[in-house]
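Progress narrative, Year 2. Work on Integral membrane protein from Streptomyces millisiae advanced from sequence curation to structure prediction during this period.
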Amino acid sequence: MSADEITSRPAAAPQELPEPAVELLVHGVGGTTPQAMLEDNRTTRVTGDATASVHRRTDDLDERPWDDGRPLREAYSWSNLTSGNGARALWLLLLPFMIVNLAHWMRPAAAGTRRTQRAFDVQVRLLALSLTVLFTAGACAVALDLVAWQCAGSAACAADSGWLDPLAGEGWWAQPGRRLALGAALPLVLVLLLWGLSHRTWSAYESASPPVRPRPDGEEPAVLGRAGFWYGRGIVARLRASHTAIGLLTLAAALLTATGPHDRGPEGAGALAAAGWVLTGLTAVGWLVVVVQLVRHGRTEEERDDSPEPSLARALPWSALALVLVVVVHTAWSRPEWLTSGRHPAGAGIFPGLMIVQGVLVVGLALTAHRLHRQAPSADRGALAGLGAASVALLACGLGGVLTGGVTEWVADRLASSHDDASGGSIAGPPVVLSWEAAAIPPLLLVVLGLAVAAGLRVVRRRRELAPGVRDRYPDEGCEPQEDRSRSIASAVARAELTDSAPVLVGWVTASCLVLGLGCVAGALTGDPPSEAADSAPAVVSALADACQSTGSWLMGAGVVLMVALGRRAYRDAGARRTIGILWDVGTFWPRAAHPFAPPCYAERAVPDLSWRMGTWIDATGGRLVISGHSQGSVLAAAAVWQLDAATRSRIALLTHGSPLERLYGRWFPVYFGPAALRALHRDVPCWRNLWRATDPIGGPVLVAGADLPPVDRGPLADPLHYGRNLLRPLPEPILGHGDYAADPAFAAERAALFDRLLRGQAPPPLPEQRAAEPV
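Result:
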């Protein structure tokens, strides 16, 4: 139906005719097929494309009134937004970018402190920028330091490696500068690949147009209901330009750091030294411009950010690319007297410097978040006393260091094992701080293991406490208590309760990472790896340090190889692809506001899709709609309802089940899903019911209460539905946990009650005439 047809129709359907009604189903994490959602193999796509679409039963294509025996249902399938393409599995290697992007949305819910909020956002963006520098520096450590500087400069290493023969001896490529210029191809291709990948996903996700719905004057929409919240086209374009430029400038700095000491030395040429100073100055100016751009331009949400990308932002990556090419030519200039030894000069400073900068930013972020936390209402204070964002940001930095160090250590081990150290050709190895990071892995794993043991003991203790009372939850059944049955149900409840302990576990891991990170920086300042620094210590300490370094090096390399193998498997195995997709279902709900190379936000397509479908269907039919969201689908449903105007929302009921709205999102993202936000959602959508089970590790109650608001939660629902066997259920009922809420009779009962409330409630205001949507 065209926009003109919508605007020309009457405001509401004639009252003497029965109003059509529909239930819109939205699936959760992992996805499911429309056929399974609609319980019919014959379905027809009503609207949408191969990526995300709305389906109906083929027999239900005509509009009709509500029939609780066989209600008219639609299914919105969005699983291909996250797990439909096997190539998405390669985003695993960029997991730190996704995690630091989450930190942006974990700001405590404090009002009236714009300056403090701005400081919070700026520090998160700077931390995200440091991760881009870290990944580019890691690529430089492999290509420039280990391969071009160390191995190619060692006759034994180059000879045993074979493929490095052209870079050794007396050939044209044997000069250090030309080896470095050739090695610069790897980090350059990496940055350009991320640039292109970010641009492609930006065109597909951040360009989805949200609906334009009229709002009365003075109506203040919720944060997730703002016109520009799900339209991040402008901010992602600016971030992409800044991060691409900083990656290229990091490569230029690595090359200039290598040539500078030689050119300014007694054997260097004055012209090359002068050119080096000019290029160094231009690189420093580029860094300053990028940082200023990043600080000045943040995210806007009140209106759609359709402004064209600033000319300076467009010019940044191209200018940086031109500068890198000039630096490569300068590096490759003939220097026949130049010889290399030891490690690349940049490695000793950039990695410890990055760790210090990241530590300072994390501490600053923690102080800023704590200040916001103290100013927030007590009910809206998030997890970890407001330090959730700082904890997540620190974990992102730590994971980035592990991935970078893992690749570097793995390459160093391969090069070192390709020749006999006794031949005199041993390479110096990776930067010292990466060896200290490797040595910190075993202690960190011991902490994680201790937390896992503590969690297991808690499950056992809670199971013993809960098991005696399980049978009492089924008073209508006449069977005798069964010890095994009670224990299995109690175990499911105890395991589900571990979700509520997640903040404590994250806090312990974060504190351990902070302490070990400080130790790595202090150890790196000694200039020796752990195995050498402990030579003068007692034999036990020396052996322990050597074991930690070697074990950690192996674990870091094995972890990277495992992630790559998992990504390759996802190309061929649909099950593995779906498992990886679940990670993105949870982690990429939020728009890219801090890091443009993070996996794209599927909600910037899914939320407008749902808002468009609900709004246009009600405009066209004047009917009523129940939107039913399971798990992550309930979050999408809530965000989509917030995008609608009040007249349209008055014809909508919300049914959530297995919903993480309060249990996960409300605690970690209090600004957007805290108690105040959920109460506002209930006021906007009075017809709202939430179903939950005690055995569900993800979903839970939304805890919205008030004298002026009808109840929302119903639960905990019985799980399993029956304790023992009976005439109608002769086989044991399964423990459903997070899945299959529609199998519970409470689901159909609450759905019918919601629709009845829509009909029996006060007549909604007439729908205003909708203006045509703005062109995309």
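The chain is about 55% helix and 5% strand. The CA atoms of residues 105 and 661 lie 15 Å apart.
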